[in-house]
Structures are given as structure tokens and as C-alpha cells.
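fwd from M.: "can u put these together and see what the complex looks like"

so here's what she sent:
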Amino acid sequence: MPSKAAKVVMTLGVFAAVGVIMLAPVVAAVNSNTGTVSVTDETVVAQSGERVALSGYDIDPATVTVEAYNDTSGSWETTTEYTLYDQPGDIQFDVQNATNIEDGEEVRVDYDYQATGELTALVAGFIPVGIGLLIFVPIARRVEGLM
Amino acid sequence: MNTLNSTLAAGYERTRAVMAMLFALVVAYAQAGKRRFVARVRLGYRLAESAFEAEDRSFARATRGQASGNLVSLVVGVAVAVIVGVGVAIPITNDVIQQSNLTGITATIVGFIPVMLGVLIFVATVGPIMART
């Protein structure tokens, strides 16, 4: 039968392990959804005369790179045959006049977008700190109780 | 006459002796009964005390177990709330705000909604720490 202190240590160990395991997806969620987020190789299907929604919004036009597959050379090539609607995060391809983009063809898009404002990013940046405190403080309190 | 008197006196003495003996027996029986009663009460008290202590130990164990279980479930619950809040609620809110093309003071006020969501989630993480202090 383990002693009371051993039970406390084991319980806190389990708590710390679960807490740290849960901290990893929290940090990933905060980093990938706040501030400026980079999207690489998002695949969309070009449709003639229609705007296609990208997963991001408030896109920085200077960071957009569109690649279409060139059947002749057999490689992905950068193209500018598109119109970007940066605020809603839509893109429209000039399928009629495009050389590399055909109707229904998959196109790869790289871009950066502002997932949240700076203030929201600042506040959200403290959330992992709060979770860390939530794990640390109960452990410290129990350790203090053992002393 | 003397014989009658002596007989009556002897009868009276016997009666007194019998009565005294009966009284002593009744007192002894009553004391024995009292001792038995007190012994029963003590036994009942000891049984109740041991049962209470067992229940108390069990309650203390359950409380400790619940406390550790609460800590783990608290951290898991807060982590899930953060992932859903930051990963779903804030991006959807921002997306809708961007799509709606708001301007002026409405855009300013609505623009603070994601900030408030962030503050709400942060307080949800720090609140349990403050509550347990």
C-alpha cells in the first residue's frame, strides 16, 4: 500500500502528464489561428467565371503565389492569370484566356493572411501561459502541502 | 400471650429479612441491568464509531480521488475549450466580419468581438487558479 505522499506524487504526475499533453494542441491552435498565418500549397479547383473561396481571409496580396500545372513541361509553374479579392479571401481565375489553367483544374495557392488583429493575437498569446499556470499552480500548492 | 407476641415478632423479623433480601435482590438486579444497559450502549457507540470512521475514511478517499480527478478533467476541459474557442470561434468570427464589409463605428465595435473572445478564453484558463487560491 503506497504512502499518502507517494499517492500525492503519483496523482500530480498523472495530472502534469495530462496537462502537458493537452498543452501541445492548445499552443498549436493558438499559433495557427492568431496573428499572421502562412498557408502553403492550398489546393483549389479553378471554375470558369466563378470566385473560389480560399480558407484564409484578409490576405496579403504581396505574399500570394499561384501555381498551375503545365501539361507540356510536366511541372508546376507560377501564374498571374487570376484576380485576388483579398478581404473576403476569394480568388477568380481567368480560365478563358489562361494558358496553364483549365476549367476544373486544380491550382496551388500560397499566401499569408491576417487571422486575427494584433490585439487578439496579443491576448491569445497569453492563453498558453494561463494553461501553464493552471498546471503549475496546483502542483506547487500540493508540493507546498507536503513540506 | 407472650408466646403469641414472640411468634408475631419472629414473623415480623422474618418478613423484614425477606423484604430486605428482596430489596437487595431488586437493587442488585437493577444495578446489573443498568450495567448491561451501559455495556450495550458502549458497544453500540463503539460499533457506530467504527462504522463512522470507516465511512469517514472512505469519504476522505473518495474526496481525494475526486479532487485529483477534478484537476485532470479541469485541465482537459479548459484545453478543449481553448482549442474550440481559438481554433473555431475566433476564425469564424473574423471570417464573418471580413465578409460583411462593415465600416465606421460598427466595424470598430464588432472588431472587438474576437478580442473579447480571446479575453474570455484567457479568463477561463486563469479563473480556476484564482478560485482555488
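replying to her w this: DSSP finds two helices and no strands in chain B.
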